Each structure stands twice: as structure tokens, then as C-alpha cells.
Amino acid sequence: MLAVNSVSEFASCQISNLESITLKLSQATFNDKEMQNLVDCFEKCSKLTYLSIQINPSAIDDQNIKLFLTGIQKLTLLKNLQLDLNLNCSQSYGILELGFNLQFMYNLTDLDLNLSNHLISNNGALCLVKSLENCQNIQTLKLLLRGAGISEKGIADIFQGICQNKNLTSLTIDLDHNQIGCQGATDIGINLAQLKQLKILVLEINFNQIRDEGIKNLGEGIKQIKSLVVLHLFLRYNYFTNAGVSQLGNCIGQCENMQSLILDFGFNKLLSDENNFELISCLASNKNLNKLQLELNSCQIDSQIAAKIGKGLSQLFNLKKLTLRLNYNTIEYVGVCHLADYLSLCQNLNELNLNLEQNKIGDQGVIGLTSNIKKIQNLQYLSLDLKNVQLGNQGIEQLALNLGNHSNLIQLKLHLHGNNIEDKGGFSLGFNLGLSKSLQILQLFIGANKLTDFGKNQMFSNLKNSKQLIALNIAKRNSINQITKNKLLKMLRLTNLT
Q1: Quick check: 385 and 355 in contact, CB under 8 A?
Q2: What string of H, E and C letters represents the secondary structure of the chain?
Q3: How far apart are CA 295 and CA 245, in angstroms?
Q4: CB–CB of 256/288 below 8 Å?
Q5: What biological-process GO terms show up in the record (predicted)?
Q6: How many angstroms separate the CA atoms of 188 and 205, rounded?
Q7: CA–CA gap between residue 402 and residue 340 (Å, rounded)
């Protein structure tokens, strides 16, 4: 594989037998002669099957876009093409040329196009997808069309074109910051339902005001894709509520082959009606689901909804990896205790990433949380984000005691920034974690607390009791000087200290 940063460097290489090339030309500028040199290089690459190319935003204009794309078209054996094309030409002309040349690249199986932040509009979208209809061998398609000025009409055209490809198994499309609306989301769902062979779907439609009806109709289309194994949906800032989320969950629950699921609902108003939040429980029918990521930050979630989430998660018996972000909500200690109590029933969990930043859970909430986490016997990897949760000495002592006594925990990441931990709490944290018989990797972020330099030194010195610890990340914000770091390296017998 060849990776170069300029056309001259590319031209000086022996390229005739290369099968894989990456060109990072983000610093390059082109006149007609330089573009012709690039095209001449392409003509020598008769065996090329993989090409990844990034172009400077000001590098391509109306005069050389056609030359550039014609050169790529001549790579007749090309199977995998990644184009990060920041077009500086007139948008309709550039997209028209791109579409015209793509339709002749019959051997393409993987296509990755980044056309974000260019106002290609509905007409440009139509030109693009018409060309894709002729690329019937494409199996993996990635389209980045963020901020492209596409409305619901353009969205309908895009997905009608995509669904003509019956060999497509993986689709990633980024439509953030367009004007999709409810009707656009509905059209997406209708067309997705025709992709019966699709196994991987990544759909980013943040900032598009699709609302409850749009998210429901999107789900109706997704549930028709019975072959779906991986689903990633990013739906931030779309003005939907519990009702829409629960209807989507009901649809996803019917995708019986689902193994990996990411749902990002951040910054939507999921109001505190616990009787209308059935998202997680709807997923219980996904017997193959083993990896779940839920982004629910800034969703107005209170303690009742948190308990409801926990109850639903406890029904996902085969879950092995869980990422749950509930930061910037209104959960109190009762809610987090109920959540953790249900999480303790997920005995197959191997990895847990939990973010509770800026929730008022206090010492009692942290104690309840970690005492239940200790019960998850198969857990090996744990990340807890407890920034600004009103945590003090009592809570941190019990946290360290509970996690230090976990028999299988290998890697631990703790974000404890912005709490009320004093020297006494820091001493207990280091001492109890140092007693762990399994912990090998510790990442600790504990800035903006009430620890003195003496307290920090004691805290880290107490880790000397650890028999298994091989790597420690103490973060720059912890303000540990180099002398202390050197002492820690010697005292803890670490292979890595950062």
C-alpha cells in the first residue's frame, strides 16, 4: 500500500504494480497542468483496486473537475473508492460530472463519497443517485451529505436511487443539518423497506425536525429489513418525545437478527411519563442483541425514567457490551439505585460504559450504583463518568471498596472531575483500588476536587499495593509533577504511566 501527500511524490513512485493507494492532497493546489500530471499517474496504475483520495477545498474548479473524474474512471479494476471531494466548482456541474463518471465504474463494490457542506440541493442529489443506479455491483455504500441543502424531495430521490441496488449489504449515510422533516423521514422508511438484503445500516439525521410521526414511519421501514445485523441511528435535535421513541423501539424489536445497536436520541425532550417509555423493553425480543449503545444525554430524564430504562435492560439477557449515556439529566440517587439494581441482573455483561455526569446522585447514589455493579461477575471493562455528581469522601470510599473487591475487573476508567473529594477520600480511593487482585489498567481523572498535593501523592502511592496493575493514566488535569510520576513508576512497577 502506498500513502503520499503530493502529486510530485506520487509521480516519483513505482506505481504500475500497486493495488492500493492513499492520496492525502489536502494541502495541494491544482492548475490544469498539475491535474493532468495526476491523471497521467492514474493511467499507469493498471492494477489498482483500492483508491482513497482527499482534495483541498480550493483545488478543483469547473475547468479540471471533468479531467480529474475522467482519470479515475479509467481505473477499470477499481473495486474500492473513497473520495473526500470538497468541490469548489459550481455544485450542479461538479455533481453531474461525478455522477456521469461513476456510472461507468462497473467493478466498484465499495464506494465512500464525502460531499458534506456543499449545497448540492435536490437537483444535485438526483444527478448523483441516477448514476448509482448503474453501479449494480456496489455492496458497501457510504454517502456523507451533511449540510448539503437537501429537502424532503431530494431525500426521496436519493433513497429511491439507492434502493435500486439489490446487492447492497452495507449503507452509511449522513444527512445532518438538511431539511428532511417528517415527510423526508417517512420517505426514507418507505425506501429502506425495499433493501431486504441489507445487513448494516448507519443513518445520521441529526438536526432535521422529523418529530414523532417521522421517527415512527422511519421505524416502520426498518422493521421490514429482516436481515439487519447492525443498526446505528443518530437522531439528535429532532423534536420527538417518548411516544415516538417507544414506537421506534417496537419496530426495531422486530429485527430478530440484530446484534449491534446504537440509538442516539440526545437533546430531545423525553418527558417524565414513565408509562410511555417502552423503548428498552421493546428490544427484549432481539435475542441476538449483544452490543447496545444508548445516547440519552440532555433528554429531561428523571429518576422514574431511569428506573424504567434499567428494567428494560435487565430483559436483554445476552447483552455483553453496554454504553449508556445519561449525562445532563435530572436523575437523583433513588433513580440511579434502581437503574443499577436492574443492571446487576445483566450477568453476561463484559463491558459497561456509564455516563451520569451532572446528575444529582450524591454519595448515596454512587454507593448504590457501585454496590450493584460489583454483582456483575463477568464484568471486565468498566468506565464510569461521575463528573459533577456531588460526590464526597463517603461515596468515593465505598466506590473504591466495591470496585476494588470485584474479582474479574481488568480495566477501570473513572471520571471524577468537579466533586467534593478531599484528601481522606483520595487516600481511600488509592488504598482500596490498590487491593484489587485483578485490576491491570486504571485511568483516573480527578481534577477540580478538594485534594491537596499531599493528598494526591498519598492517593497514588497507595496504589503500590496492587499486584496486577501494569498501566496507569492519571491525566494532565490531575497536576501530578514529574518527580511524583518517577516515584510512581518505580514504586508501582508499571510498564506504562501517562
Answers
A1: yes
A2: CEEECCHHHHHCCCCCCCCEEEEEECCCCCCHHHHHHHHHHHHHCCCCCEEEEEECCCCCCCCCHHHHHHHHHCCCCCCEEEEECCCCCCHHHHHHHHHHHHCCCCCCCEEEEECCCCCCHHHHHHHHHHHHCCCCCCCEEEEECCCCCCEHHHHHHHHHHHCCCCCCCEEEEECCCCECHHHHHHHHHHHHCCCCCCCEEEEECCCCCCHHHHHHHHHHHHCCCCCCCEEEEECCCCCCCHHHHHHHHHHHCCCCCCCEEEEECCCCCCCCCHHHCCHHHHHHHCCCCCEEEEECCCCCCEHHHHHHHHHHHCCCCCCCEEEEECCCCECEHHHHHHHHHHHCCCCCCCEEEEECCCCECHHHHHHHHHHHHCCCCCCCEEEEECCCCCCCHHHHHHHHHHHHCCCCCCEEEEECCCCCCCHHHHHHHHHHHHCCCCCCEEEEECCCCCCCHHHHHHHHHHHHHCCCCCEEECCHHHCCCHHHHHHHHHHHCCCEEC
A3: 12
A4: yes
A5: nucleocytoplasmic transport
A6: 11
A7: 13
Tens digit of each residue's pLDDT (9 = 90 or more) over 344-358: 999 999 999 999 999
470-492 in b/e burial notation, b at 16+ Cβ within 10 A?
Answer: eebebeeebebeeebbebbeeeb
C-alpha grid cell, residue 291: 452490543
Backbone angles phi, psi at 265, to 5 degrees: -110, 20
Q: Each residue of 315-352: b (16+ CB within 10 Å) or e?
A: bbeebebbbbbbbbbbbbbbbbbbbbbbbbbbeebbbb
Residue 496 is predicted with a pLDDT of 63
> 175, 142 in Cβ contact below 8 A?
no
**Lookup result for grid cell 441476538:** 288
What is the residue type of 484? Answer: T
Task: Report the sign of the C-alpha dihedral through residues 78, 82, 86, 87, in that order.
Answer: positive
Of 456 and 91, the one with more pLDDT? 456
- Residues 199-240 have pLDDT tens digits of 999 999 999 999 999 999 999 999 999 999 999 999 999 999
pTM for this prediction: 0.94
Cα-based distances in Å from 267 to 192, 248, 262, 271, 317: 26, 17, 16, 12, 29
